[in-house]
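Here is one chain, start to finish.
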Amino acid sequence: MSIEKTLMEGCERLDLQLPEGAYIRLAAYLVLLERWNRAYNLTAVREPEAMVIRHLLDSLSILPWLAGPRVLDVGSGAGLPGIPLAIAQPEYEFCLLDSNGKRTRFLIQATAELHLSNVSVVRSRAEDYRPA
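Its structure:
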């Protein structure tokens, strides 16, 4: 089964409606994550179909309880849940916060490649973070 089909079926089971183009962007995020994961070990999950379930659908499952318009993802790591949520909620602003340089480099690259204008990446420890 394809990544997009697994994702669509999972969203249907979760009763989630995603904006146009979201499935393509989420699949592109997984491709990017899989590529970077080989060098940077961003996640222990290696199989693309398992990534759909354990990363994307797990992240999207909190969508009904998300309160914006500004969301802070503390310890974002590989961008979970922040990037999938930003794709699903383009009208919200997301700040992805992580203290690790390799992870923030990935997050910056992912937001650029996925054209996520509603995402900012901050390299900082949570206790040192001071939003504007």
